[in-house]
Specification:
Elements (H helix, E strand, L loop, with lengths): L1 H25 L1 H19 L3 E2 L6 E2 L6 E5 L5 E7 L27 E8 L2 E9 H7 L1
Antiparallel strand pairs: 1-2, 3-4, 4-5, 5-6
Length: about 140
């Protein structure tokens, strides 16, 4: 029986020794480099998606909503036509007005106010060409 306990102790000592050797060999700076690479990879997976205000498709980094901006003194008026998924209009990604919830015609667009904030742009949707005509 004592030989069984001795074998277990030797095995545990070998495992602990290998762990210590690996940590020493890896080194502190290499470990931080590895941790930073892993963190950067995981952060880049989460920050890529933003929804299109017209069709709701999730946009990756670099994908934008096609828009025409008319500059003003403090804010701008913008016509939003859609993202790469819904512009030009198609059946796979229907273009829906966020205000009236109706489908936007093929030649229609969404009217919005655009505010410049430090480091980003904020868009406030006013309506589409159909519901804005009914209110004016």
């Amino acid at each position: 029986m004592p030989s069984m306990e001795g074998a277990v102790l030797v095995a545990m000592a070998v495992v602990v020794g290998l762990l210590v050797y690996t940590l020493v060999r890896l080194g502190r700076s290499d470990y931080r480099l590895l941790a930073n690479r892993m963190a950067k990879k995981s952060r880049s997976q989460f920050e890529v998606l933003k929804p299109c205000p017209i069709c709701g498709s999730m946009l990756r980094r670099g994908e934008t909503v096609h828009s025409v901006v008319f500059s003003g003194p403090q804010d701008s008026l913008a016509h939003l036509f859609g993202c790469p998924y819904c512009h030009p209009a198609n059946e796979a990604h229907p273009r829906v007005c966020p205000v009236c919830s109706r489908r936007i015609p093929e030649d229609g667009y969404v009217i919005a106010r655009m505010f410049e904030k430090p480091g980003r742009k904020h868009v406030h949707v006013l309506g589409c060409t159909e519901c804005r005509q009914r209110t004016t």
